[in-house]
Design a protein that fits this description.
Layout: H1 2-32, H2 40-68, H3 74-102, E1 114-120, E2 134-139, E3 142-145, E4 147-156, E5 159-167, E6 175-180, E7 186-191, E8 207-208, E9 211-213, E10 231-235
Antiparallel strand pairs: 1-5, 1-10, 2-3, 2-6, 4-5, 6-7, 7-9, 8-10
Helix pairs in contact: 1-2, 1-3, 2-3
């Protein structure tokens, strides 16, 4: 019970300390002549507020342990203070992980997962020009373009294979990769990945195109014919840093 009370007192102290820190910081800005250039005054106020919050947190916990818990010695207070701070750190960490797991977008800054894939064309189909190849990932409301690899084309027997990748920005299990090739209908591949994809260094099995779009104003995507044997395989390399 004392740990719970110390936790509540610490959080209350942090809130009050932050408010007092904000007030103190705003008071000191003109007194110390701190310029607002490039946000200097704002950073100063935030810094004072953080110091006030940390001071209030520690003060609330220590006072509760000392006067409510009856712990008088420095060692007894310090040991229990460490326990309470550990609980707070665990709660903060858990909250961050829940937020990341439920966020619509990946929160990696410039680091996002990438879908690496290969498109295998039907047997005997001519090699397309690089400029005529285009990719688009449709993931919820997000649209993102793809990029051909440096070594973007190879032969697999009598079939041409294209190599490319596309960044994944949105956490969703509903992803459609749209592939545009010269003089061909648009290819719509359903990408069977979870919202947060599992990483792998190996390509999965080849999968046939799910739908094709004839690019006509009054047409709807249709199932591919026997001759439209376009295939895809893909994987998501390690991306967490």
């Amino acid at each position: 019970m004392i740990y719970f009370l110390a936790l509540l007192a610490g959080l209350l102290g942090a809130a009050l300390g932050s408010l007092l820190g904000l007030a103190l910081g705003e008071f000191l800005v003109p007194v110390l002549g701190i310029s607002a250039f490039e946000g200097g005054a704002g950073y100063f106020v935030i810094g004072v507020a953080l110091i006030g919050g940390l001071t209030g947190l520690l003060t609330g916990i220590v006072l509760t342990l000392r006067f409510k818990g009856g712990y008088r010695s420095l060692g007894a207070v310090a040991g229990r203070l460490t326990v309470v701070l550990g609980v707070i750190a665990a709660l903060v960490y858990g909250g961050i992980q829940i937020r990341l797991a439920t966020s619509e977008n990946f929160s990696g800054g410039n680091i996002n997962p990438q879908l690496h894939f290969e498109i295998r064309l039907p047997a005997g189909m001519a090699e397309p020009s690089r400029k005529g190849v285009d990719f688009e990932m449709q993931a919820g409301s997000q649209r993102s373009g793809g990029f051909l690899q440096d070594e973007w084309m190879r032969k697999d027997g009598d079939r041409v294979v294209l190599s490319a990748f596309v960044p994944l920005y949105t956490r969703t299990s509903q992803r459609i990769l749209v592939v545009s090739l010269p003089d061909q209908p648009k290819l719509l591949f359903s990408i069977g990945l979870s919202a947060t994809p599992k990483v792998s260094d190996q390509f999965g099995a080849w999968q046939r195109v799910n739908f094709v779009d004839d690019r006509k104003a009054d047409s709807q995507p249709r199932r591919p014919s026997e001759a439209e044997n376009f295939e895809i395989r893909y994987h998501v390399p390690e991306w967490r840093r």
